[in-house]
Amino acid sequence: MSAVARSVRPFASRVLSQKLPLAAACRVSPATGFPRGSVRSFSQSPFMELKKYTESHEWIELAADGKTAKVGITEYAAKSLGDVVFVELPEVDAEIAAGEPVGAVESVKSASDVNCPVSGTVIQGNAILEDNAKFINQSPEGDAWIAEIKIADAAELDNLLDAEAYKQTVGEE
């Protein structure tokens, strides 16, 4: 070992064994602290957050239990309608067949039924929309869902469009 290496080695060992200040630690990627291969990604069940679409611009998102789902209108539909002024919510325990209206949305431009993508029983309507119908324009595919339903036949979901197929129908890339 050279003389330079012998003199630098103790200093380097002391520096590397000291704790870095917080600012320096923030610059280091958290993944670098893990040995290669020890960071694992988590996969989701195919039923987790399964979202499907209809050609008539409704969406349905399957809950983690695989038996219930939320139904609403797509962002494309919300933009097409314009400023929403009223939302008709479904009655609790109503039996609805696929393609039947589960609610309605009225805007300054027009009114439109919201058809249920699958058959089921209404668990609840989104109470937020009773007092704030305009919320549908802010979060149409998020918290502004129309109804939560208990699905009668999960196989009906297979007849619906996935996100990519829906985007193609509305001409988005």
Automatic annotation (TrEMBL):
What biological-process terms (Gene Ontology) are attached? glycine decarboxylation via glycine cleavage system; protein lipoylation
Show the stretches that span the lipid bilayer: none
Please state what the protein is called: Glycine cleavage system H protein
PANTHER family xrefs = GLYCINE CLEAVAGE SYSTEM H PROTEIN, GLYCINE CLEAVAGE SYSTEM H PROTEIN-RELATED
Obligatory cofactor(s) = (R)-lipoate
**Subunit relationships:** The glycine cleavage system is composed of four proteins: P, T, L and H.
Q: What does this protein do?
A: The H protein shuttles the methylamine group of glycine from the P protein to the T protein.
Q: A Gene Ontology CC term for this entry?
A: glycine cleavage complex
Q: Which SUPFAM superfamilies match?
A: Single hybrid motif
Question: Which InterPro entries has this protein been placed in?
Answer: 2-oxoA_DH_lipoyl-BS, Biotin_lipoyl, GCV_H, GCV_H/Fam206, GCV_H_sub, Single_hybrid_motif
Instruction: Name the family.
Output: Belongs to the GcvH family.
**Pfam families, per the entry:** GCV_H (PF01597)
What positions are modified (N6-lipoyllysine)? Answer: 109
Q: Which Gene3D superfamilies match?
A: 2.40.50.100
- Using the record's annotation, list all stretches that form the Lipoyl-binding domain: 68-150
Cofactor annotation comment: Binds 1 lipoyl cofactor covalently.
Organism in which the protein naturally occurs:
Aspergillus tamarii
Compartment(s): Mitochondrion
Keywords on record: Lipoyl, Mitochondrion, Transit peptide
